[in-house]
Structure formats: C-alpha cells, structure tokens
C-alpha cells in the first residue's frame, strides 16, 4: 500500500495530479504573455512571446520532472518545505536557462541588460509561483475535505443499516433456541459471520463477499419462513473482482423478503446479474403482496438509503430504480465498471 502524503504537505501531491499539471502549463503561458507584452519590452512582441513560451514551458516541465523523480521524499515534508523546494527549483532552473537563452537569442535581447532581464524574470516567477502554489494547496485541501465529508456521511448511512440488519437476525436466532438447539447454533454461527461483515460498514468489500453475505442472510431467514422462501440466483460462473459498498445487495434482498415473502403464502425472489462494456447490472424481483401493513415500513431496508450510499460511493454514476409490473416488484441496480477515486 502506498503512503499517503503528509496532511500538512499536500502541495507536491496536488501538483502531480492531472489538474495540477494543466494548471502549471497555463500559469507558465500566462507568465510568458505578461513578459512578452510588458511595456518595458522591446523588439517584435510575437517573436518574444514564442521565445518566452518555449522558455518557460521548458523551465516548468523540467522542474516538474525533477520534482516527480523525488516525489517519494518530498511528499513526507511539510507544506512550507515543499513550497521552498518548488520555488528554489524553479528559480535555479530559471537562472540556468536564462543565460542559455540570452546566449542563443542575443540579438533579440541586445538592448536589455542581461542582469536586469534575469532579475526581473526571477521576481515575476517567484511571485506568481508563490500565489499559484497557495491556490493549488487551497483547492487540494478543499477536495480532501469534500471527500472526508462524503466518507463521513457514507459511514453514517451505513450505521443506520446495521441495527435493522442485526435486529432481524437476532430475532431469528432467538426463536430457534426454543425448539431446535442445533438449528439455533447454526443460525448463531451464521449471524456471527454476518455481524463481522456488518462491522466493515462504510468500507468497500468484494462482490463475492457481498454475495456470500446475502446467502448467509437467506439461510437465516429460511429458518423462519421455511419453504415459503424460494430464491433463485442467476449469476455468472465467475464473479468479477470488483468492490462495492458493504451491505448494498443484501438490504435489497431483505426488503424483498419483508414485502414479498412475509405477507404471502409463497414468495419467489430472483437475483440476476448482467455485464456490459460499461456497467454491471443487478435485477432483484419479488412478488407484491395484495395487502401490506403500512405500519411495518420502518422495519424494511429503505431503498432511498441505498441510493444515497451509492451516490456517495460512485459519485452519482450508479443507479437504483424500482418498478412494479404484473404484481412483481423489480429493483434494478446499475454500477459503473470504473469508479473515480
């Protein structure tokens, strides 16, 4: 596992993100325009712009390359040290390339003092780089805070699921202790495995582990409903190695059991999985009972809760939709194959 950058020194980490590199190139071009169109500049302005653009892009890209090589050490430093190294590297390379460019393009800068040219350019780069790095750091910290808040909200939503999940399972185990000690033991062992998985709420788990969790839950519920509960799995021979939020599919199946099996004499639940180039699709169906006691709605898993967790985990790219047709309740869960970090 790779080390996370020091919380006080995120500048280098932000600099090497795609947005950071793009922003660096934009800033270097802005500096080139300022220098080329400066009232104190002499000669052909467009020639100066071409020279300055090539000059500054070379400096900034060389600096980024050098810092990238040393990124493992730099990310452990504080923000102030990272800023000092960044500015020092830019200024040092600026001095070297300035003398080189002044030698090559001596006719363009013939009427300017080389010392004044270098000093003025160093001052501009120092000021702009300091402002740019502060802006980049603020943006990165804001992004980190947003992710932290989203994770905290995800953890809170997961915590709201656990009491319902454990309450229903404990009731099953408690009922079995009165007439079947062996069955009660098996139910408690299954419940222990389910509880261990539930303790990982707020984190991602493998799809195969989520399916196993679902099967353990169904095994517990079969102690209660017996032959009334029939569940068919239509899954690929080998499940894809993907991560999903803990307790995503299991609550949907629990909801199907609660509304499709408990009020009816027979409940057939179906779980299907389909794959496409861009997404994985799960379809869970259950019969709709003719009469459902509305007072029990608080005991079932809220699909809105699952939607919120999916929205946080997949950044609004996952979908959970429900339909009712021919007395069959259908839940369609679509999750993208690629998840943004």
Summarize the structure.
By secondary structure, the protein is of the alpha+beta class.
Per-chain topology:
Elements (H helix, E strand, L loop, with lengths): L10 H5 L2 H19 L8 H25 L1 H4 L4 H26 L9 H63 L4 H18 L5 E3 H19 L3 E6 L8 E3 L3 H13 L5 E9 L3 E9 L15 H12 L4 E7 L2 E9 L5
Parallel strand pairs: 2-4
Antiparallel strand pairs: 1-3, 4-5, 5-7, 6-7
Which percent range describes the beta-strand content?
Answer: 5-15%
Radius of gyration: 31 Å
Count of individual beta strands: 7
Q: Helix fraction?
A: 55-70%
Global outline = elongated
- Distance from N terminus to C terminus (CA atoms, Å) equals 15 Å
Biggest sheet descriptor: 5 strands, mixed
């Amino acid at each position: 596992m790779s080390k996370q950058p020091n919380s006080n020194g995120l500048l280098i980490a932000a600099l090497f993100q795609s947005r950071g590199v793009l922003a660096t190139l934009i800033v270097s071009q802005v500096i080139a325009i300022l220098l080329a169109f400066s009232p104190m500049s002499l000669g052909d302005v467009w020639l100066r712009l071409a020279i300055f653009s090539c000059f500054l892009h070379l400096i900034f890209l060389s600096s980024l390359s050098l810092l990238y090589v040393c990124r493992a050490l730099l990310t452990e430093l504080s923000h102030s040290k990272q800023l000092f190294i960044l500015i020092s590297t830019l200024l040092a390379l600026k001095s070297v390339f300035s003398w080189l460019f002044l030698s090559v393009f001596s006719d363009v800068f013939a009427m300017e003092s080389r010392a004044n040219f270098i000093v003025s350019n160093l001052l501009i780069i120092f000021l702009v780089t300091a402002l740019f790095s502060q802006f980049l750091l603020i943006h990165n910290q804001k992004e980190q805070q947003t992710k932290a808040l989203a994770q905290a909200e995800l953890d809170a939503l997961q915590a709201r699921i656990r009491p319902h999940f454990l309450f229903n399972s404990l009731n099953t185990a408690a009922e079995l202790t009165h007439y079947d000690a062996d069955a009660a033991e098996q139910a408690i062992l299954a419940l222990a495995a389910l509880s261990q998985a539930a303790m990982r709420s707020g984190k991602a788990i493998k799809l195969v582990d989520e399916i196993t969790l679902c099967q353990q839950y169904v095994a517990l519920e079969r102690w209660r409903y017996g032959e009334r509960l029939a569940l068919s799995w239509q899954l690929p021979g080998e499940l894809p190695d993907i991560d999903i939020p803990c307790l995503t599919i299991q609550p949907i199946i629990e909801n199907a059991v609660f509304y499709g099996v408990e009020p009816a004499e027979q409940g057939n639940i179906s779980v299907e999985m389909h794959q496409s180039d861009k997404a994985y699709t799960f379809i869970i169906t259950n019969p709709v009972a003719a009469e459902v006691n509305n007072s029990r709605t608080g005991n079932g898993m809220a699909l809105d809760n699952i939607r919120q967790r999916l929205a946080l985990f997949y950044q609004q790219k996952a979908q959970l939709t429900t339909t009712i047709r021919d007395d069959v309740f259908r839940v369609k869960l679509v999750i993208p194959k690629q998840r943004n970090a």
